[in-house]
Amino acid sequence: MKLHHHPVSTTSRAILLYAADQRIALDLLHVDLFAGEHLQLPFAELNPSCQVPVLEDGSFRLTETSAILKYLAERHGNAAYPVDLRLRARVNERLDWFNTGFVRDFGYGFVYPQLFPHHHRGDAAAQQHTLDWARERARRWLGILDEALIGPHNDFVCGDAITLADYFGAALLTLGAAVRIDYAHWRNISRWLARMHALPCWNDVNRAFDALIVAPRRTQAFANF
């Protein structure tokens, strides 16, 4: 199976982390996002949405991180995507939770406008309004994740066992490091993230991302979270 990806891409890193931790072999094909390769042929024909990741399994192509995670789990069969109907529904629910309200406000509302010029609002007032609006909502989502989803007793997002929702959610929350968000206020999130960081494959998967965020953190002032 081939995975078209970029090692810094958040959505790619979720799949890379899952595949590495579960020892699923993938043929990794690098798509240079910084050179705009995802916007050009032949990749734009492979995925008209012009986004990574894309999975190819023979003649079958699949996009969207959540769908790819589920496909890999189904194909290889492991406990990270349980077969029990209700346990699997819970994993699906948490994947959707991360992929809808949370990433809308946290990622597209607060983080991306500070990192990427094409997400920056037109003027300083509009930018500040966007960040203020998104900050309030992102903090609310983090409170829900901390208190209601993980809580004081769960080791992972869906209970005591790691699932697809943990790989996806942890990749999304690492975006906070790019704008210097400290999760210490959310003790259960911090405990969960520490557990994810302790995965043997974590450093290898996230090395490119970690290296990239060092330079801008030295020179750029980010909005207080």
Question: How would you characterize this protein structure?
Answer:
With 225 residues, the chain is an alpha+beta fold. The chain has 2 domains: 75 residues, 3-Layer(aba) Sandwich (Glutaredoxin); 135 residues, Glutathione S-transferase Yfyf (Class Pi), Chain A, domain 2 (Up-down Bundle). Strand 3 and strand 4 form a beta hairpin. Helix 1 packs across helix 6, helix 4 packs parallel to helix 6 and helix 5 crosses helix 8. The longest helix has 31 residues. The termini are far apart. The mean pLDDT is 96.
CATH fold-level topology of the largest domain: Glutathione S-transferase Yfyf (Class Pi), Chain A, domain 2
- pLDDT averaged over residues: 96
- H/E series: EHEHEEHHHHHHH
What's the total count of β strands? Answer: 4
Strand order of the largest sheet: 2-1-3-4
- What radius of gyration results from the CA coordinates? 17 Å
| Total number of distinct structural domains | 2
- Assigned CATH architecture of the largest domain: Up-down Bundle
Helical segment count: 9
CATH class of the largest domain: Mainly Alpha
- Percent of residues in beta strands? 5-15%
Largest sheet: 4 strands, mixed
Short characterization:
Helices cover 58% and strands 7% of the residues.
